Amino acid sequence: AVALLRLRRPTPPPPSPTHPPPPVDVNLSLNYESHHNAIYRSDVAQRSSMDSVLFSITSWTFITILAVLLALTAYAVNIASENIAAGKYHTVSLVARINWVAGWVVFCGMNGILVWFASTIVMYVSPPAAGSGIPDVKSYLNGIDVPGILSFRTLVAKVLGSVGSVAGGLV
Question: How confident is the model at residue 56 (pLDDT cuts 50, 70, 90)?
Fold first, then answer.
């Protein structure tokens, strides 16, 4: 299948000053087959065992830092959702002591405001943050470059949208 895709796309001529290169399609498949690359194979052949050890240590260090940052982000989402929900239920219980209909209206209103906040953040800050993100990551790992799924804006929108939707009672 990869050979057929390569046959359909002719290699463009080198760019010249008079003819600029054609625009790049953002949905083209990425080529992750680096082991078929002669330059990569020659680079690997020239590496020493110490280079391999340093590369392994660097990779594991990066993965560990990434895991710690992910855990801290998940903890922050959990704490923020719990605190907002606790404040919401405290406010509703105070109002419901006076009038249960007013308590119900306050409960629905606060949930509506939180869900509106979450959906507005996702809609206007980063639309790729909508949904679970699993299909986006699966397509990225299969070589399709989906614009914006791994940006910092998407992370912020996903975190704020998760906080608002969980505290608003959507989960």
Answer: confident
Q: 144 by DSSP, 3-state: which?
A: strand
- The answer to whether the beta carbons of residues 168 and 114 sit under 8 Å apart is yes
Nearest residue to 147 (alpha-carbon basis) of 11, 24, 12, 22? 24
- Res. 11 pLDDT band, cuts 50 70 90: low
Distances (CA, A) of 60 to 17, 48, 85, 91, 102: 44, 19, 37, 46, 55
pTM greater than 0.90: no
User: Residue type at 117?
Assistant: F
d(CA 132, CA 130) in angstroms, rounded, equals 7
Burial class (CB within 10 angstroms; exposed 0-12, middle 13-18, buried 19+) of 110: buried
Angle at 71 between CA 83 and CA 126, to 5 degrees: 75
User: Which residue type does 94 have?
Assistant: L
Plot region of 33 (φ>0 → left; ψ -120 to 50 → alpha; else → beta): beta
Does pLDDT of 27 surpass 90? Answer: no
C-alpha distance across the termini of the chain, in Å: 41
Calpha distance 123→139 (Å, rounded) = 21
